[in-house]
Design goal:
- The chain has about 500 residues and is mainly β.
- It is about 0% helix and about 35% strand.
- A 4-stranded antiparallel beta sheet has the order 1-34-33-32, with no helix packed on it. A 4-stranded antiparallel beta sheet has the order 4-5-6-7, with no helix packed on it.
- The N terminus and C terminus are likely disordered.
């Protein structure tokens, strides 16, 4: 096991976000290599692919699943694979658990793969789309899902438990965003196909999930029966619902709703409200805000809305012209209740902090730049009852002091030199069972997983991995910025 390394060097000063001291308690707990048998080479680069985490074999420790996809789009935001073709599972010590399929390339976005214990036996299942070509299917490419099945796999072995091909999925295809104005297809909303685990039926544990496919949301149960579908007329780039919706119980009835920024769907898929609140609805959430009340958080023009559609907060287009990311947590103890951090000027380091007590802006600051200026995440670095830190692009930020610093031993991200996905995704997770959250970081265009902690815990102090919504529904982001380098891959 890699020993823990402390920060011991001074940092450069970034304008409007000075850093006087590094985070001395940021420690590299483990640098874990993706098994060599899972790696692939493309355009001279060796990599594993995108990552999900969960306890796959039921031993109480966190395991890892790397996946790659096929069927790249022609250019720009669609470059990369859409349809998973390879899955490889390994444990915290790098031991291979199982593998399925082969080939593939970088996913165009964090894609349709999730890990969650559906049946409650302690070992998580894998829920995923999987490329399943057939002789009956002609001319299937990145713009259609007619050659895709949905799978639930046994996390211990990788064996397929359920594998239907419902028409609600296979008949979905990329539609023109605006035939009169759009030069291309609906890549803005088609390329994000994230599976989100939810509890729509009011069971003791989440056993359902929803996936957004362009203009349509489709919900399933744990036997892959379709529960409901919902379609929206808003599909134009920058004027469409959230690329990645959010799930949570906003009305307190024990069943989850779906927030996409322009509408809030009840557990049965029926809209509780529908309204185009603002442009660039890039990030949404369902979480507590004012006085413990659960609200719909919507990044477009900086909105917070209740379950009836009544606006609690609207920062407006002047203050939030492009709400790229939003995160809610107790970032400052000197302010009552949680705070909201929103990246309010698109793909830039600029951010603001809003107090839930006053609904007013309490601070303006600039984060460290990163390859695409996305990837913020709240981290319970010191435990569930302590002030949260903010992760961003390989740095940790303490918003009480306004200081940030890089994590030790983290190589530079590949950025757009390799692929649009070439930067460090982050999943905060309580890996050791002590209440604090570690950070699991990876670059899908590279070969290693980096796990950071603030304690001295070794394997002998490991008390068990605890998974929750932030782990099985990670909020990993990607950008829609075009890159200069173009390539076609994953044929």
């Amino acid at each position: 096991m890699n020993r823990l390394i402390t920060l011991s060097f001074l940092l450069f000063l970034y304008p409007a976000a000075p850093c006087a001291e590094p985070f001395a308690d940021a420690l590299l707990y483990k640098r874990l290599s993706v098994p060599e048998a899972f790696l692939i080479e493309e355009n001279g680069r060796v990599f594993g692919g995108d990552l999900r985490i969960g306890d796959l074999n039921g031993d109480g420790q966190c395991d890892f699943l790397v996946y790659r996809s096929s069927h790249s789009g022609p250019s720009g935001p669609a470059i990369g694979g859409f349809k998973p073709v390879f899955l490889g599972a390994f444990d915290l010590h790098g031991r291979i658990l199982w593998r399925s399929g082969g080939g593939g390339t970088h996913p165009v976005r964090p894609g349709s793969v999730a890990i969650h214990d559906l049946d409650g036996d302690g070992a998580a299942e894998v829920i995923c789309f999987f490329h399943h070509p057939s002789q009956e299917i002609a001319d299937a490419d990145w713009s259609t899902l007619n050659d895709v099945v949905i799978q639930i796999r046994d996390g211990k072995t990788g064996e397929v438990i359920h594998q239907p091909a419902p028409k609600e999925i296979t008949e979905r295809s990329c539609q023109p965003a605006n035939p009169k104005r759009s030069r291309g297809r609906q890549t803005a909303n088609w390329v994000h196909q994230r599976i989100l685990v939810a509890n729509f039926r009011g069971n003791e544990r989440p056993q359902d999930f929803v996936v957004k496919l362009g203009d349509t949301h489709v919900a399933f149960d744990d036997e892959l029966n379709v529960l409901w579908t919902y379609s929206t007329p808003w599909i134009e780039y920058s004027k469409c619902p959230a690329y990645i919706p959010a799930v949570g119980d906003i009305d307190g009835d024990g069943r989850d709703e779906v927030n996409s920024g322009y509408f809030l769907l009840d557990h049965d898929g029926k809209p509780l409200w529908e309204r185009r609140l603002g442009d660039n609805m890039d990030s949404v959430a369902i979480t507590e805000w004012d006085g413990g009340k659960t609200r719909a958080i919507c990044s477009g023009f900086g909105h917070i809305v209740d379950e009836r559609g009544e606006v609690i907060l609207a920062l407006g287009s002047d203050e939030v012209p492009h709400g790229q990311e939003v995160r809610i947590a107790n970032f400052r103890d000197d302010l009552p209740g949680p705070e909201m951090v929103i990246r309010h000027k698109g793909h830039t380091p600029d951010a603001i902090l809003i107090s839930s007590e006053t609904n007013q802006i309490s601070d303006r600051f600039r984060l460290n730049p990163s390859p695409n200026n996305t990837g913020m995440e709240s981290v319970k670095w010191y435990g569930p009852n302590e002030v949260a830190l903010l992760y961003n692009g390989g740095w940790l930020w303490d918003l009480e002091t306004g200081k940030g610093a890089p994590l030790p031993g983290l190589p530079p991200a590949n950025g757009s030199e390799a692929h649009r996905m070439g930067f460090y995704h982050a999943i905060p997770a309580n890996l050791c069972g002590d209440g604090r959250e570690e950070l699991v970081l990876w670059d899908p265009t590279a070969t290693d997983v980096f796990i950071y902690t603030n304690g001295q815990a070794g394997d002998d102090e490991y008390q068990g991995y605890h998974a929750g919504p932030q782990q099985f529904n990670p909020r990993i982001m990607d950008c829609a910025l075009p890159h200069k380098k173009r390539h076609r891959s994953g044929k």
